[in-house]
Write a structure and sequence with these properties.
This protein is mainly beta. It contains two helices and 20 strands.
Length: 294
């Protein structure tokens, strides 16, 4: 039986599999240990199909049984291999809509609870998080280049901190941090990561998320607002997958006599090669007043 092989690097991007990817054995080789998460599909009746997805604690299907995708999805935690290799194989190839997220376990240090969330493409999801017993993590996955995720609001206790990461939980994968000092002026925020991790370090918090731009108020300008723009799938380091990184952002109101605001921007990070470029255009609805091309 042929198999697929992946190498998981410390602090690298995660590998995301769908149901078809596991119809043949998938073998993972990690720098430390293999960490496996499961994001069930939106159709709850399919959850039982996850029982056919088996995790073996070693380099092939003859290795000891470690767990099933179903047990991972129900436990709200990660499954970790004993050593540096693990194999995933669906013993019955049943169509499902789940995703398996696999990474080197070094990125998940001191996490008390980690839960996958399917964000509805049209609704607003209200997520309650508690980190009273340790760091709590909610993660989402979005592979659609035409849909973005938006954090609308965060209500949190004094002293609490919400950190957001793309692809993993290393320091260089952190995107932004919210506290009671900036959760009013810096939201809403568009988040264009493939894998997005919301990490609450202490206390309790309530998050409002959506993938519906009109419900996010993302394009609404107001005095004192702050935020950032990124390319699509920012922080993803597996460029051989050919993920489209183009991104378009608009803040303002294209109506007559709309309010005008003074604003400033900084380009903080750019990784350009070949024919890639950054174009920034600022206009007043009539003419271009500033243009940046790099």
């Amino acid at each position: 039986m042929t198999s697929q092989n992946y190498t998981l690097e410390r602090n690298g991007s995660s590998v995301v599999l769908d149901h078809e990817d596991t119809y043949t054995p998938v073998v993972f080789h990690a720098d430390t240990k293999v960490s496996i998460l499961c994001l069930p599909g939106t159709q709850k009746e399919e959850d039982t199909y996850l029982r056919t997805g088996i995790v073996f604690d070693g380099p092939d299907v003859n290795s000891p049984f470690l767990g099933s995708l179903y047990s991972i999805s129900q436990s709200q935690t990660q499954l970790i291999s004993t050593n540096s290799t693990a194999t995933i194989f669906s013993i019955v190839p049943i169509v499902s809509h789940h995703y398996v997220i696999v990474q080197d376990s070094s990125i998940y240090q001191n996490i008390n609870q980690i839960t996958g969330l399917n964000v509805d493409d049209s609704a607003v999801e209200v997520v309650k998080m508690s980190a009273l017993s340790g760091k709590s993590v909610v993660f989402t996955h979005n592979k659609n280049p035409l849909i973005d995720e938006y954090l609308i609001s965060v209500d949190m206790e004094n002293g609490s901190e919400l950190q957001i990461y793309f692809e993993g939980l290393s320091d260089n994968q952190r995107v932004v941090t919210y506290t009671n000092r900036n959760n009013r002026t810096n939201l809403p925020q568009k988040l264009q990561g493939r894998l997005c991790y919301y990490v609450l370090t202490s206390g309790n918090a309530t998050l409002s998320l959506t993938r519906n731009k009109s419900k996010s108020n993302w394009e609404t300008a107001f005095a004192g607002r702050k935020g950032f723009f990124t390319s699509k799938f920012w922080k993803h380091d597996k460029r051989e997958l050919g993920l489209q990184q183009d991104s378009f952002n608009f803040i303002g109101n294209e109506t007559k006599n709309a309010s005008e605001y003074r604003f400033s921007y900084r380009i903080q990070e750019a990784d350009l090669s070949g024919d890639n470029s950054i174009d920034v255009v600022v206009s007043d609805n009539v003419q271009r007043i500033h243009y940046f091309d790099q």
